[in-house]
Amino acid sequence: MKKYILAFMLCCTVTLMAQQREGAGKYAIKQLSVNTENSDFGGAFYGQDKLVFASPKKGITIVNDVWLENNQRYLELYVADILPDGDLMNPEYLKGDVNSRYHEADVAFTKDMKTVYFTRNNYYNKKLSRDSREMANLAMFKATVNDLGEWVNIIPMPFNNVEYSVGHPALSEDEQTLYFVSDMPGGYGETDIYKVDINYSGFGNPVNMGPKINTPNKDVFPFIDGDVIYFSSDRTGGMGGLDIYATRLTDFVPDPILLNEPINSSADDFTFIINSETRRGYFSSKREGGAGDDDLYSFLEEEPVIFRCAQVIAGEVRDQNTTEIIAGATVAIKDADGNVIEQVEVKEDGSFQLPVYCETEYVLEGSKEGYTTQSKSLTTSSEPDKELKLLILLGTGEITEMAVATEDRPEGMPEEIPEEIVKVRPSTYVVNIEPIYFELNSSYLNKEAKRELDKVVDLMNRYPEMIIESGSHTDSRGITGYNIWLSTRRAASTVNYIIDHGIDSSRITGKGYGETQLINECSDGVKCTEAQHAMNRRTEFVIIKM
Fold first, then answer.
1. How large is the average pLDDT for residues 106-128?
2. Residues paired with 467 in a beta bridge
3. What string of DSSP letters covers 60-102?
4. Model pTM?
5. Is 200 helix (H, G, I), strand (E, B) or coil?
6. In contact, 472 and 494? CB cutoff 8 Å
7. Contacts of 153 by beta carbon, 8 Å cutoff, 6+ apart
8. φ, ψ for residue 450 (rounded to 5)?
9. Domains of the chain, CATH where assigned
10. Are 400 and 390 in contact (CB under 8 A)?
């Protein structure tokens, strides 16, 4: 973290052609008449009709109070009246002993206006503290506002430290949590956003807000509006410099949303605040067209940020016959009308990820030159942040049903998986029974086979909504067509046995796969042991739904 407040601001030029993104808010902005050629920024509501902000000292002084970083005087706190159109007038120097000869900025008031948190250089008891490099870091202070509007009884926060900066306070709706920014050790980036509990005895221990909000870059200037946190960041993917983002703090925490222009620009945009009732607010920017350096802007929120429930499809692409990874394949996600939303090339390990919204119909399509394109329709669930596991199998023959599972376990599968069920492959769970063996060229069920099938019947009786598929497989020896015919007869034998023992026919299907789904390399022409061939001669009861 830069050691002084203004060092957060990086000078960039502005462009006003950014595309308005759905759900990222719509705003009308106005530059304020209190702006000067120097840096005017920040903002905190002081009741319903006043705003506190920071600006360099004015007037004459005999003390050297110029900050060498920008050749402007140190920042002081001012208060101004809010006009009906959002403009400010009658800016005045704040009363009391709040303003020192160093920087003061970034304020958060309690609702009763009797307590205030603010940022200044680490100056206390008329002494400026410096770190081991002789730098004066930022610190956060608490003050009481008396009946005359003066800030008195100023005390430092217990988690201030001379070796790093702490500042930029924001309060939660219930005023039980204080948010702030620090470059303390152990963070995710240059500066991170933290929170700390406010209790009767003082304050708890600071807690990092985590990687959903913090990045390796600068994450600064938090503001809380109900369960939404607004903050600024110069992370990748923004419009330039510092940009203003928003995300939720409760229920599910979506990836932060970059607010639309004109709130954001290619220059620094920061210190966003908003009135939760009127939806009017203020922010600061260093964009072109301003009065000078950083400038204050008011805005009216015409359309709010919409936090849509989101999920992610995480899967891989494999060869249908060999189950080998298919690197370089393409996976596209389309809407219900067939329009491509996003398309990605799988990684070297065959994996891919695609973001999707909850409760939405999609068509997923896997393709690669030399393979038959496969597609599958799916509808996402209502669970936020869910990761949908999926396997795409591409073949070279005619189109078959894509092997896809929209969850990493079948629908309805309990968190604690019954011991009678085992996961055998990605997204594939089967009933855990001993292998069912048939006599050569026979589909007759012997006594041992029936004993194992009774276990399947028992499990299905205990889970009355359970749906399974009986899949019978052969090894690669023998004629392909005959293997399909024989495995189909064997699958039918198992299905008929289960139905005859009281299971509704709608809950079980059977299919013979022959040698089309070998689980090892023992295809035609490959020398394998009898034990390796036996691995492919299997009957599996794949769980479709619990």
1. 89
2. 545
3. --SS--EETTTTEEPEEEEEEEEPTTS-EEEEEEPPBS---SS
4. 0.62
5. coil
6. yes
7. 143, 144
8. -65, -35
9. 5-305 (2.120.10), 309-408 (2.60.40.10), 409-546 (3.30.1330.60)
10. no
